[in-house]
Amino acid sequence: MTEIIDGNEVAQDIRNGLLDSIETLTDAGTTPCLATVLMNDDPASETYVSMKHKDCEEVGIATRDIELDPDTPAEELFDTIDELNADPEVHGILVQMPLPDHVDEREVLRSIDPAKDVDGFHPENVGRLVAGNARYKPCTPHGVQKLLAAADVETEGAEAVVVGRSNIVGKPMANLLIQKDEGGNATTTVCHSRTDDLAEKTRAADIVIAAAGVPEMITGEMLSEGTVVIDVGINRVETDEGSELVGDVDYDSAKEKASAITPVPGGVGPMTRAMLLWNTVKAAGDVAGIEVDLP
Ligand SMILES: NC(=O)C1=CN([C@@H]2O[C@H](COP(=O)(O)OP(=O)(O)OC[C@H]3O[C@@H](n4cnc5c(N)ncnc54)[C@H](OP(=O)(O)O)[C@@H]3O)[C@@H](O)[C@H]2O)C=CC1
Ligand SMILES: Nc1nc(=O)c2c([nH]1)NC[C@@H]1CN(c3ccc(C(=O)N[C@@H](CCC(=O)O)C(=O)O)cc3)C=[N+]21
């Protein structure tokens, strides 16, 4: 029997696990607060940002909601970030990607106070993660680690294959998997668009983590019996019945081979949002000087 790993359920457990710490912090006068900055009018981005606000509301995290018109001059975005950096009531800052072409994404990431960088994308936080001294683990890979743990998947000694090498998913995922730490100690291969014979790599894996942004590219035929399959991909595709959300994994054929698999939607996506709350609570705890219990 293939285990279907329910991301909504695990994310709910994480949110519940944060409640006591949020209450402790709030009672001590430090209500955790996340600020989001949205500077694109893509409906999907708007949906994701509003989901993040709803999640915060549910657990008692305060929010700031900043929306900038996509043709706002970059200077104004930097001014906004400076204000949030300086605001003692704001603990986490998330600038939703993608940004318009006239804004330099790297410069934006560098401008966020690393102590408030709850995405974990600032170069200082990337460096700390790589050095094995992470402050904020990036939300999507951290969420994948929590999903694997919830499904009792042992990473230590496992052969893990990450498909994708982006800065926001593939690279930090691989870095977490090779850490000498809980949820790490995996022998990790990173594949990408120039990988020769991807199927050979995925067939040798105990754990496959698909983050390529190519709809349904990982098929059952590319997997060995018993593989754990984590599908990070979120692709909107048009079908005869309208638009549909699919992952990077061909779910039906992969499920035939997998011992455990995540669905899309309802897999990694909700975990990304839950780990954002996790990082925000950690940020508030650091500011308050209170050691909070994190799930
Ligand atoms: N669930 C969630 O919370 C989140 C989901 N996502 C989703 O995850 C997916 C990946 O996102 P992201 O990392 O930002 O995407 P990017 O487009 O930034 O990176 C994709 C990576 O996949 C590699 N790749 C592309 N095509 C192939 C192929 N045919 N075979 C092997 N490797 C390939 C690319 O290789 P190369 O480097 O050579 O170009 C690149 O490294 C997307 O579907 C995205 O929507 C993203 C963030 C959060
Ligand atoms: N600074 C920044 N940080 C991010 O973390 C970030 C970003 N920019 N830009 C866009 C990507 C994408 N991303 C998702 C988060 C949650 C779901 C999610 O909750 N998905 C649900 C619902 C999907 C739906 O119904 O549309 C699911 O998969 O079940 C999806 C995608 C975060 N990202």
UniProtKB/TrEMBL annotation:
Which CDD domains does the record cross-reference, listed alphabetically? NAD_bind_m-THF_DH_Cyclohyd
Q: Per the record, what is one GO cellular component?
A: cytosol
Start and end residues of each Tetrahydrofolate dehydrogenase/cyclohydrolase NAD(P)-binding domain: 138-284
GO terms in the biological process aspect are: L-histidine biosynthetic process; methionine biosynthetic process; purine nucleotide biosynthetic process; tetrahydrofolate interconversion
One Pfam family this chain carries?
Answer: THF_DHG_CYH
Cite the annotated pathway: One-carbon metabolism; tetrahydrofolate interconversion
> Which InterPro entries is this protein grouped with?
Aminoacid_DH-like_N_sf (IPR046346), NAD(P)-bd_dom_sf (IPR036291), THF_DH/CycHdrlase (IPR000672), THF_DH/CycHdrlase_cat_dom (IPR020630), THF_DH/CycHdrlase_NAD-bd_dom (IPR020631)
Residues engaged in binding NADP(+): 164-166, 234
Keyword Manganese recorded:
no
Report which reactions are catalysed by this protein.
Answer: (6R)-5,10-methenyltetrahydrofolate + H2O = (6R)-10-formyltetrahydrofolate + H(+); (6R)-5,10-methylene-5,6,7,8-tetrahydrofolate + NADP(+) = (6R)-5,10-methenyltetrahydrofolate + NADPH
- The EC number(s) given in the record are 1.5.1.5, 3.5.4.9
A GO molecular function assigned to this protein is: methenyltetrahydrofolate cyclohydrolase activity
Residues covered by the Tetrahydrofolate dehydrogenase/cyclohydrolase catalytic domain: 5-119
The keyword Plastid belongs to this UniProt entry's keyword annotation:
no
Give the superkingdom in one word: Archaea
Q: How does it assemble?
A: Homodimer.
Q: Give the protein family.
A: Belongs to the tetrahydrofolate dehydrogenase/cyclohydrolase family.
Tell me, in a sentence or two, what this protein's role is: Catalyzes the oxidation of 5,10-methylenetetrahydrofolate to 5,10-methenyltetrahydrofolate and then the hydrolysis of 5,10-methenyltetrahydrofolate to 10-formyltetrahydrofolate.
Name of the protein in question: Bifunctional protein FolD
What organism is listed for this UniProt entry? Halobellus limi
Its lineage reads:
Archaea, Methanobacteriati, Methanobacteriota, Stenosarchaea group, Halobacteria
| Gene that specifies this protein | folD
